[in-house]
Amino acid sequence: MKRFAIVACVAGLGLLTGCFSLLDLPPSAVITTTETTGDPPLVVSFSALESSDDEEIVSYAWSFGDGRQGIGEACEHTYTHPGVYVAHLTVRDAGGRVDTDSVTIIVRGVAPDIRRSFAWESHDESWTWEIAIPKTLYAGYAQKTQRDEYSESYECDWTEYVTDASDDALFTSLSIELFDRIAPCYDDPSSAHHGFLQFALDFITAAIPYVNDSGGDWPRYPVETLAEVGGDCEDTAFLYCSIVRPHVERIHLLIFKGHAACAVPVDWAFVATRDYPVACYTHGDDYMAFVETSADPPDYRRVGELRDTLRSAWEEGDFVFYDVGSGRAAHVDGMIHRPGPSN
Description:
Layout: H1 2-23, E1 32-33, E2 37-38, E3 42-47, E4 57-63, E5 69-71, E6 74-79, E7 83-93, E8 98-107, E9 114-122, E10 125-133, H2 135-142, H3 160-163, H4 168-182, H5 189-207, H6 222-228, H7 233-244, E11 252-256, E12 259-266, H8 268-273, E13 278-283, E14 286-291, H9 311-316, E15 320-323, E16 329-330, E17 335-337
Helix pairs in contact: 5-7, 6-7
């Protein structure tokens, strides 16, 4: 009798355990989205809020179908290129059981260009310029959330903002177009070179308003500065470097404490014949003239014209120049050439 009771108890416990096992169900993955089709860049918000489990879902893993992944109950993803993408959600509960759901995202056609119109004064004339910026190119840069911040110890090599190869084709074409517009105003290549340096500077200081970053330092890629029509000192310096770089053998990005500017190659005749003091330094066989890119009109600057707030740092060499081509950084002492009676 006692043996029967024990057997019955064990059997009952087994049935009870089986019931609990049957009640521990796998999770159910459910995707909801804000968009499933559209033109690039297509921003889609994904949610797993409608997913469920009899106990608790402990992880949410996303695969967006374009090689990118995400985690969390809700996330956002931008599709920058046309195509058909299948996004997957995998949920896992505390017992290790998983379930998946999927949704198809259709990104149509070719992204339309971002078109911007600019107007400025230079060489005693009024100029206008219509620029088409590929929308996918802008979206690609806008997705870059890791931005190098400024450091008082000059440890911010920002040359990558200029040398990133994705926008080379765009800025090569812009540089050629801008040079071809101003070159007919000059009779010789040297004068056309120096005229182009000033023409590009006039465009940036007049057409790109100075805009402070909000919520901390946020360096913009040159394509972003063009598309957003605004930027602060490093943004306009990056843009100037990108526009001028295809035309010159060397260009420098200058980093002061709390400020960014550029330096461009000029010959001694340019330095000696200006009717204003020219701030420059020597690098190899070149005279590198200071360029201030962030002064809005009517306070725009001429190539080589130094702002007073930087005079002490300039003369004491309290700044770093980055050779954009090589990426190397160095300190130099700047000199200021003042016009003489013969000039």
